Amino acid sequence: MLRYRILLESMHGFLVILHLNSKSMIEDIFKKIISHAKEYGFIFQSSEIYDGLSAVYDYGQYGSELKNNIRSYWWRSMVQHHENIVGIDAAIFMHPTTWRASGHVDAFNDPLIDNKDSKKRYRADVLIEDYAEKQRQKAEKEIEKAKKRFGDDFDEKMYRETNPRVKGYLDKADEVVATMAKALAAEDLAAVKQLIEDLEIACPISGSRNWTDVRQFNLMFDTRMGSLSDGSDTIYLRPETAQGIFVNFLNVMKSGRMKVPFGIAQTGKAFRNEIVARQFIFRMREFEQMEMQFFVKPGTEMEWFKYWKEQRMNWHLKMGIPESKYRWHDHDKLAHYANAATDVEFDFPFGFKELEGIHSRTDFDLSAHQEHSGKKLQYFDPELNENYVPYVIETSIGLDRTFLAVFSHALQEEKLEDGSERTVLRLPKFLAPIKAAILPLVKKDGMPEMAKKIFDELKLDFMLQYDEKDAIGRRYRRQDAIGTPFCITVDNESLTDNSVTVRERDSMKQARIAIDQLRTYLFDQLKV
Ligand code: ATP
Prior knowledge:
Shape: globular
Strand order of the largest sheet: 5-11-12-18-15-14-13
Distance between the termini: 23 Å
Number of helices: 17
Bound molecules: adenosine-5'-triphosphate
Helix content: 25-40%
Number of strands: 25
């Protein structure tokens, strides 16, 4: 959540931070995040001049830099830092049988329901889950009240388990979710509708309970390709990047002489015809994934599952976002082929939601492709002197969701001691779109020439911006708003002492640095 902060810089240089959070503020904050992303060239609605395309977004000049930097941070940590992981770049279009083998043709569905009065479309499971969540919130409210009433003596665990009202709400939530899960597992869509009716769930727009039947909706986009050998010409836009890795398992293993355990990583676009696509870049119809499939010896998968959980959480925390913004959510109900699954959830402006999934998928995918293709997708283990289909641990994270996590956490409005305000994007420095701005104090006396010389020297190593327009204070604010960690100002003295003033974004502190030390200084400051 964007923290609205009132920063009061005391005489001693301490920052006093007041966090102001309330529900309506949270909504305003999310709107601010979206409008800041647009105003400063991070994210635009796709084809906006034609009123946009729902749940599709374009990344602007700073957004694409930030996105590239996040992608490359992921790639380096996966591929460069692991001698046994290699990266590939598979095509978006794949042979249609791929999606039959993976189960997407038959089962990549969401249950859909329409309200006849508002004509709005919903995911039936989400309506029911929202109902359950409301029950849980009612329970939490009761608990909060009791906490205040009983003070230090309050035993929350006991209260949860014994207070009839709280227990009633929590049991109801569990019961509703369990009934829905059972109906969905049995593909009994009439039972899902019955549940919506029994719970008297109304459309949030029309307020009516005039619902259509529930029907399954496949999330894959399809299109046509010239002609295929089996006579059909329907192909799909991939709904995940993982299958490009599975079908290349043999190619990579042979050509890279890989030995189990080894991994294959990939980043790229995926497409899902999401029924309800809201919440900005959290749920898009075209998005980017960063996935890694790690192939292991059967029986060792739980060790690797643990290893990858640790690795991935470290990756998140290295961005400097506090640990409290992340939590694990272990899946209660596992897919039939999985033997462990967990999500990394992030505290987005609208609450904790999935950011990354880590799954132990057994040999399901390779075996399915083996069966459908008739090709042996196995590894010969020289120690065991036998062939086997490796098990897989996958880590799967949305690039756009990571962008939203990083961006929303970084955006802050601050009131400074002198009464002025600033909007600052406190991005992790190594991810910032522009690493340093080179600013001549004034547009005369040789300062622009000197600043341009510094720009030309450093641009080979860093993404920079040269700016000579407006007063220096306004230029600083512009750079704060796009998250530039350093502003390098050439002033009168620079011409004689060959040093510059370097202002740091977060503290706004300024230091004098010799021009020939700038490169080393920046490299040092921008380390991960
Ligand atoms: P959700 O439950 O939120 O729909 P999912 O469980 O279907 O997500 P996966 O299939 O596990 O997601 O995909 C892996 C990752 O891809 C997710 O953790 C998320 O970060 C990202 N992702 C999935 N769907 C979308 C989407 N529509 N828009 C943006 N990112 C997405």
